[in-house]
Amino acid sequence: MKKLSQIIWVALLAFFGGCYPGGIQFYEDTDIVYTTSKEEFDFNSRSTYAMPDKIVIDVEIKDGDTTYIYMKDQFAQPILQNIASNLQNYGWNRVGINQKPDMVMTPSATKSTTVFYSWWYDWWYGGWYPGWGWYYPPYYNVSAYTTGTVILNFSDPDDTNIVGESPTAWLMVGNGLMSNSNDVTRVTKAIDQAFVQSPYLNTK
Amino acid sequence: MKKYLILTVIALTLSLGTLSAQSLTTTSYSIGIPTGNLGDYISNVSGRGITFDYRKLVQPNIGVGFYVGWNVFYAEKPYDTYTLNNQSISGKQYRYTNSAPFMFATDYYLKPGGDFNPFIGAAVGGVYTQRATDMGLYRWEQDAFSFGVTPQIGFYYKIKTFAALSVAAKYNVVTKAGDFDAGQNYLSINIGYLFMGN
Question: What is the largest CA-CA distance in chain B?
Fold first, then answer.
């Protein structure tokens, strides 16, 4: 009976070890698109917007000077074109920043790397030879993931607070696990989805 | 005379067998069928579960003891958009619910001592439910320790002197508590190995 119970326990361990539910399998499975808008903001009464031709990915502050770091054009241009075409489809006209646009679209992107790092010591006894003794070789276990985030901020430049900041009228945050393939279509698909789930931006 | 002696020995052996079966211990593979709010959240039937039942026979036809179990429900939801007020979020969702009942239980056996022994019973106690929703790299977790009632119906069929195949349907009524505003009920079909001990 003892043997039988052992077999049952081994079978149970194998059952639960092997049948644990699945989850994320591909980088794309981690992509999410979040949008929100300022309540009661009237997008329909506005029709023009301005957008820079670069995407900020970092800010460096050195000796009091602020320097923006931009995304490479090969990635930034398809993203900017995608934003522009989505806004055009919703009836928005792009104008220069000096032409008093009703709205300003400011795209930015960030990446963040999270590193899991754990280590432990193991040891073995090397014997009583000169120069030998207890020996502690380290074992390391390091893993990391990098997430990419795209942020679109749509705001009214005339709607400013006391220090000249415009509150966000529409915000999109796209986030996902970054792969090494630099697949820009994941970003453009996320932006397309952001407009699909924000029909109130449609001024047509 | 010899004939009577053999019959007496057989009868005595059988009665000893019945008398010595003073406890029933069942380990079962459990298939979970979610209902109600749990079914709305995860509709998939779960093949990941285990239950463990112990009954002390206080009468040949009445067993009292406990019931513990673990059922894991899982569903992968396709890419979709979820909207709440002025906020929307799109992505794939991976939904998990773990349910673990810990209950006092009693069963009534309709044919004690028989090879085929149907039973009905009920268990009362607590159920720990943990729900996790993964979306992107984020996880939302809810959990509760709820009051639970589990009526059950089933039978066991003797395959050896002290062993039987057990089949039971348990309906786990898990009341709303903690992070849940509705009960997390499910039916489980349990197929197991029953050991009759002293």
Answer: 92
